[in-house]
Give the backbone structure.
Amino acid sequence: MDYLKGLNPPQREAVEHTDGPLMIIAGAGSGKTRVLTYRIAHLIHAKGVDPFNILSLTFTNKAAAEMKNRIEKLIGLEARNTWMGTFHSTFAKILRVESEKIGYPSNFSIYDTDDSKSLIRSVVKEMKLDDKVYKPNTVLSRISGAKNRLISWETYLNDPFIKADDEAAMKPKMGEIYKIYQKRLFKSGAMDFDDLLFNTNVLFRDHLDILNKYQQRFKYVMVDEFQDTNVSQYLITKKLAAVHQNICVVGDDAQSIYAFRGADIQNILNFEKDYPDLFVVKLEQNYRSTKNIVQAANSIIAKNKAQLKKDIWTQNHEGDQIELIKASSDNEEGRMVATTIFEEKNNKKLNNSDFAVLYRTNSQSRAMEEALRKMNITYKIVGGLSFYQRKEIKDLMAYMRFVVNRDDEEAFKRIINYPKRGIGDTTVEKILVAAYDHDIPIWEVLTNANNFLSGRAANAVDDFSTTIKSFSIEMERKDAFDAASSIAKQSGLLRELYEDKTIEGLNRYENVQELLNAIKEYVDNPENEDKSLGAFLQEIALLTDNDRDKDTTDAVTLMTIHSSKGLEFKQVFVVGMEEDLFPSQMMMQSREDLEEERRLFYVASTRAMEKLYLTYATTRYRFGRLLNCEPSRFLEEVDPMCIRVNKKLSASMAGAFRNESSEGRSGFVGLQKPNVRPMTTAKVHTPSPDFKPSNTNNLAAGMKVEHPKFGFGSVQKIEIEGINRKATIQFDNFGEKTLLLSFAKLRIIE
Ligand SMILES: Nc1ncnc2c1ncn2[C@@H]1O[C@H](COP(=O)(O)OP(=O)(O)OP(=O)(O)O)[C@@H](O)[C@H]1O
Ligand SMILES: [Mg+2]
């Protein structure tokens, strides 16, 4: 059995422990997924298990495909017959066969998020409720949360705590909506995404014969990324494994990043209780990354209190230090990333696909995409759309296009009733027909609405054309940014998004803000002479046109950190390492939130095999204003021995892009402090009121200093002169710390 040679002793132990409950809790890059793969191969090849009897559940379809591929390499085509997929895809398949048992037709439809939201919208309307209070997104995420905790609408309506909660949120009708929504789904023979898991639980609960059938079929059950399963998923696996108990889960508590969607890290702890015979394997050797990266990752996660103890180490070579890149703006950050990729590709003979750029929020992709396009580097966005393809961006762009060119039919169709202004499909149809029949531009129909439409419809259309006219006037007088901001506000689009407080809604709002930021940068750039909205639109149209015919097989990967779980790349850039961006301001209500952000940083850093770059910008346009940004607190948490400042890039790039550096820009305002400040530790130091960082060029051993977080301490020693200069300081309350002086903020006391 040759393949067993590719495993270290604990990995091999896990692979060979085929029967009975097994949990592998291990750090990033220690071969958890590899063990699962080899275990499946081993079950088939050495134990003679029929591939049909093996079920493996992964987090993404991509992960499943990859795993299948790897098993095929180990044991050949037989691997094809194992059951492998995400929870949703696997149990959708099973429900297809069994749905009649729970009253659904076998050809039931699966509603995607858009379908679900549209149904909720109708329900809210029929119930005559205010759709500003009961927004589809908010309602859906509430219902989804309930389903993931296996709370049916019946339970929901009768639970006093839930009721009190909804009443506190001024949404007392939530349970009623849930009920009607669910009945309507049922009547339409449809399930939403969460129903796929919810109904599987119902099926297994109410039909023991069927449960028994699948218990027989899936003699071996395996779950990857176990730390991110929710209650509903956990119970399905528990039921399936109840008889044979051949269940193997692998996970890393330090990489749990989906709490906001109901994932429950408690599942790991419960597992030990649920299976008294549990065999636990720890994997601590990392095979993915260099020593520097492993050490840095360890130092990051060590700051979290809530974690299982693990010592991750590696035999891999030391590797390069982690590179810290400072840019003067988000666009410069993009250019630095693109230039570095370009140089590294040439110097090290790497492919585009060896690189990944990871960011905290989707809207950050904009600056990266533009820089990569300009340098002609092929990229792909995984798990999302490219910035200019996103709905909210297309909506606002459609407004701008229509204001610039009132004959633009596609733009017209997008915006005529968005946000809702009571112009229905029939009216739109009438307008289009009128324009066609009389062979006149749409705009002419709109401005003579009374001739073509009657009553309410005519009035609504009249209001619309008046609004567009006022935008046109503004556009003539103002620069692109002022015109676009005004359009975003007056059209009601910004408000519509702002009021949607779900994660998705926030994301959309940020994207629109980011588009406005891009326009502001365009206007502020002295190289652009024509600052009109039309000129900006043209530039963007040309930029996005490159999309066609691009071969995407060898592409740099751009994605959010959330989507990067389980993947690895030779070189990884984690961009936007700034306070309020990462850790995200939106997610910082409590210590737990901060710890989840930190786990995200841990996930991001551990994707890198050979080289990790952390980049940040000192200014960034937010809400149309150029704001100062502070480097992320996370940067200070990385062991300074593994990090260095990229002097070459900082110097040469600053020169190359002098024209666009932040100096000389107008509209500069100071940093806005968020009003919620999270607790880093229980006894955080409060900086003195007059705290101002000192120049540390002459800092020497023996001096007394104050640090904004660690408080007072005395300098023990100074190491390495120049840009990587470090100070070891003994803090009164926080012990000894080594800080990189180029970004540690210290006030010298004496
Ligand atoms: N014993 C081994 N010998 C050689 N390479 C190994 C060994 N174990 C793991 N690897 C390699 O190390 C890398 C990381 O492994 P894998 O992706 O399985 O880790 P993981 O624990 O699942 O990581 P993550 O926590 O990020 O999901 C892969 O490239 C894998 O092939
Ligand atoms: Mg993995």
Observations:
- Confidence is low (pLDDT under 50) at residues 546-551, 651-683.
- The longest strand covers residues 608-617.
- The pocket of magnesium ion (ligand 2) is lined by residues 32-33, 566 (CB under 6 Å).
- Residues 6 and 154 are 52 Å apart (CA to CA).
